[in-house]
Amino acid sequence: MSTRDEQSRPSIPGRPRRPAAKPAPRPVRPTLTLKGTAPAAMPEPLAPVAPVAQVGPAPAEPPPLAPAEPVTAPARIRPKPPFEPWTDTIGPIRARPFDVARARRLDGLLVAPIAVLPTREGEVVRPFRIGLGAEIAARCKPDVPAAELKRAIQDYARSFLYLFAVAQPGSMRHDADGNPVEPVSEVDRHDAQRGCQRLIARDRQRKAERAARAIRETGAALSADPAGTPAPSAPPSPPGPAGR
2-26 burial, b for 16+ CB within 10 Å, e for fewer? Predict the structure, then answer.
């Protein structure tokens, strides 16, 4: 008789009831392991590592990096025209009114005029000998500042005709009395030739700018007054750098 029948069967008075049978325990399945090997043991936890004490002074912090410089495109270098030394001379260089005015200004700062300077238009422009500036300074008036005398000498010695006289092949240097003492060196002569070329190029650029400005002004005047007549053009300037 099953346990369910015994539970549903009514009990008889005076007869002890037999306890119901307990179900058999479920068998435990064995753990499968490889033959001849034991299961791996769990690794033990690592002990905490104590911080290492610092010995000596603390290391210095690295310096801050400098800001990077901006990268710019290389400037375009305009090639210079080849220099060709002059081989022909045009003879003595004659002074113009502007050069005579500069020479008179320099003479006016001295106790006595010096013969190497031109006194009127058409006289020969003579290059100074090396070291003549100190001799001129010794003849300067006591009340003239040294800066004013230096500026007067530079104005005369850097003029176009003075450089043109130095640049001539076979040119000679002169003392304060106007006597030739030594030839101009090749280096100084070539430097003077380059200086003349720069002054000529600058004078041509200025003339072109003045002509372009005159054309613009004439056009503006005609557009403002169509019935009017154009303004007369400027008289032509003499050859060579103006005011030199």
Answer: eeeeeeeeeeeeeeeeeeeeeeeee
Predicted local distance difference test score (pLDDT) of residue 33: 58
Where are the domains positioned within the chain?
A: 86-225+240-244
Contact between 168 and 93 under an 8 Å Cβ cutoff? The reply is yes
- Calculate the alpha carbon distances from 130 to 157, 174, 185, 191, 234 in Å: 12, 9, 11, 15, 42
31, 14 Cβ separation under 8 angstroms: no
Alpha-carbon distance of 4 to 21, in angstroms, equals 11
Q: What is the pTM of this model?
A: 0.56
Report how far apart, in Å, the C-alpha atoms of 150 and of each of 167, 177, 181, 195 are.
Answer: 23, 20, 23, 20
The architecture that CATH gives domain 86-225+240-244 is Orthogonal Bundle (1.10)
Supply 174's token pair: 């002169």
What is residue 141's DSSP assignment? Answer: -
Token pair for residue 244?
Answer: 């030199």
Convert the pLDDT of each residue in 227-239 to its tens digit. 555 555 555 555 5
Radius of gyration of the chain (CA): 55
Which residue intervals of 17-175 are DSSP H helices?
97-107, 132-138, 146-157, 160-167
End-to-end CA distance of the chain: 147
Residues 128-139, mean pLDDT to the nearest whole number: 93
CA pair distance 220, 139, nearest whole angstrom: 55
Coil/strand/helix, residue 181: strand
